[in-house]
Amino acid sequence: MTEREKMIAGELYDASDEQLATRRTEAHNLCTDYNRTYETEQKKRGKILGKLLPNAKPGAYIQGPFYCDYGDNIAIGENFYANFNFTVLDCCPVEIGDDVFIGPNVSLLTPVHPFRWQQRNMRKKADGTAYDLEYAKPIKIGKNCWLAGNVTVIGGVTIGEGCVIGAGSVVTRDIPANSLAVGNPCRVIRQITDKDELKELIDGL
Hints:
By secondary structure, this protein is α/β, with parallel strands linked by helices. The protein has helices at 3-8, 18-35, 42-52, 117-120, 199-203; strands spanning 13-14, 61-62, 66-68, 74-76, 81-82, 86-89, 94-96, 101-102, 107-109, 111-112, 123-124, 130-131, 133-136, 139-141, 146-147, 152-154, 158-159, 164-165, 170-171, 179-182, 187-191.
């Protein structure tokens, strides 16, 4: 297996691998290019995102600044919106469904490092190149979800469709569909039901 195949499979891999390092550099440069554009430069922004996020459905709107490691491990559905400072460390696949809203300062973090420093610290190859061994776990966010400001989602988590994750939450475990979940660690408070419909406000529009 290549180091990229190991990475995607959630196995220990060498992050200094040339193929991975080349794509990371390309993705980081594209992020920088995107973050330097104006909101009025939609055509330019779209072209950059097409290279950075080839698995995103057309029309995804990312306010910026936006940061990711690879970009091509991120799949984004239709009608996606992300506010300021969206960060995705996509060492494993990150799957985001249709109609997902992302608040400011949200982070999706797939990488995992060994707990013991003897395994976590940097090493050196025979040629002197520094590297470390790490692994990652995928993240999946179902359709029709809203992640409020400053939410962090840890690798290995699936958030079911129709969920609302409260501001400042750290999501360390799966969240079932149609849940309101908050806190650190994030816990389900209750189910979202028809009683939450803002009927009077909607009818007044």
